[in-house]
Every structure is written in C-alpha cells, then in structure tokens.
Request: fold
Amino acid sequence: MSSITVLSHHRAGQKSEKDDESFLSVIVPMYNEEAVLELCHQRLSAVLDNLKQKCEIVYVDDGSSDESWNIATSFTSPQHQIRTIRLSRNFGKEAAMSAGLKAAKGQAVIILDADLQDPPELIPDMVEQWQSGFDVVDMKRKARHGEGWLKRTTAAVFYQLMNRLCEMQIPENVGDFRLIDRRVVNEINKLPERTRFMKGLFAWPGFRRTTLMFDRDPRIAGQTKWNYTKLLHLAFEGITSFSTRPLRIATGAGLLTSLAAVVMAFIVFSKTMIWGDPVAGYPSTILVILLLGGIQLLSIGLMGEYVGRLFIEAKQRPLFVVMDEQIQDVVEFKEEVEA
Ligand code: UDP
Ligand code: MG
Reply:
C-alpha cells in the first residue's frame, strides 16, 4: 500500500513532468451542493478511471450548511486519492479555490465546479493539451446555456472594460474551469493579495496558454450563488485589484472640467464686457454644480475603494481557515490494480 501524498511531495518541487506517470489533481469547490455532489463524483471518477495519470480529487467544502461535507467524506475510490477540506465558514469560491490550490499536489491541477456546469468529460482533452506542452488550458464557453441576455451582455461589457483597463489580457468567457501546470500553480500560490479576483490571478503569471472551446451546461440542480449585486461587486473588485487606471481617469475628468470652467469663465467675462449681459441663468448654474459635484463624489469614492483595498491588505488576515481535513487513502495504485 502506498501513499500518493509522499510520492507527490518530492515531485511537486521539481520541474513538471508532463508524461503519463505524472500526477493530476482535480479541485472541486462546493457550497451547499448536496443535490449534485453524488452525480458529480460519479461522472468525475468515471473520467479519471480512464486516464493514465494517477489522480487526486480535492473537495473543498466552503462552509456548507447542508450535507455536502458528509457526502464528500463518504466517497471512496480504489484508484484515486480523495481529500476533503472543510473551511471553517463560507469564505467564497475564490477562497475555496485558493485553499484547493494550496492543498493540491499534482503536476497539473484542474478546477471543476461541483454543479456539473463544467463537464468532467473534457478533462482528457485538457490533459492532452497539457502534455503537448501548454502550461495553462483555459476553457472558453461557446454558449452560455441557461443564462439570460442580461447576464450575457453585462459579462461582455465587463470583459471589454477589464481588458481595456488592465495591462494583461483576461480571456473572455473563460470561467474558473481550467488546467494549470504545477509551475503556474506555484506562482499563483505566491500571490499574497486578500482580494482574490481569480480570473485575474490565473491570467497574471502568463506562461504558455491555449484555449479549448466548450458548451457550458446549465446547472443540474441547486441554485447559483451569484446574483447581480455580487457580480457587480466582483467586477468592481476585478478592476480595482488589477488596475489603477480608474484613478487616472478621475484625474483626467478633473482636468477636463477645470479646462471647461476656464473657457466658460472667459466666455462669460467677454459677454459681460462687450454686451453688458446679465449673469447667465439659474438652470445652467445648477447643471454645472451637479456635474462637478457628481465628478467629485465619484472620484472620492474611487479613491476610497483603493484605500479600502489597502486597509484590507494591511490587516494581513489569512485567506481562509481550514477546520477539518480528511484523506481517503488510495487502496492501491493503478499499476498495481492493472498488474
Ligand atoms: N461555490 C463555493 N463557495 C461559494 C459559492 C460557490 O465554493 O461561496 C462553488 C459552488 O458550489 C460551485 C462553484 O463554486 O461548485 C460555482 O458556483 P455557482 O454555480 O454558484 O456559480 P455559477 O456557476 O453560477 O457562476
Ligand atoms: Mg454554476
């Protein structure tokens, strides 16, 4: 009987080996997913059984209040190691993924949603791309089934804005479903920030990347944890964590309005001098006050956002707290099973 953990420990530090002997981790963040978890495990195991690589599945329970933890810890597999990590409360998917990335031992790591919106059946294709030399395999959604036009439009606007404001490119319509090589995982694990906009963090290290297209399925059961307010927060967080360009835009707006004020003062002054015009009317005055007030409040708010970010980073709190961890050890290695 051997333990995958020991084997992977000394491999993890080395240069990645993208061969059939390598070790693959699949991270599944879950939050109140009792309705789909069994099916998810079945489909995932069936796929991993047919891979040549040794695999571990890392379930990260993000403080579920339902039976998710009990279900996940009851899973067994003759060939794959199953690790279940329980966070001490709901820290959010970003933190759950970070916990999974820290815990994963594989030379390649795949992140998969528990709700089966990311089909596990695509894993062999991802591994194939990785073995052919790519370090990151981004999975791009061809169609966003089960998502209304509003979600699709707002998503498109967000990516446009994000990529215009940030220096690196964040691939459009790529969620968290992706394969990441050990070297890239190590770089991501080193990123210390508390506000973890994962799409950005995944893109930040660079490396050799490729994209596979896939059809994103609708949720099998249960409810999405996202609503528009949360998405708006995430979008704002993404932009302010990766770019200070909005601050420059605020400065630009200030400069432009000051310039407009100078021009207007000149016009008003000349008109009064030449035609003895009375002071221009009330509506235009109110308009200018409102416009300037708006720009000022917006800029102060924007600055506040960045100061708030600094405040959160300065506290240096951990990203997540692990409450329990269970390792379902592998009974036998695949080679031993086959022998
Ligand atoms: N999730 C999580 N913590 C949370 C919210 C969600 O671990 O606080 C998990 C969830 O269980 C699922 C994945 O993240 O496996 C994606 O969540 P969801 O389906 O709600 O997001 P969507 O697919 O709608 O973007
Ligand atoms: Mg989902």
About this structure: Strands lie at 23-30, 54-61, 81-87, 108-111, 136-144, 174-181, 209-216, 322-328. The two ends are 14 Å apart (CA to CA). Residues 282-315 form the longest helix (34 residues). Residues 29-31, 33, 62, 90, 92-93, 96, 113-115, 117, 224-226 surround uridine-5'-diphosphate (ligand 1) (CB under 6 Å).
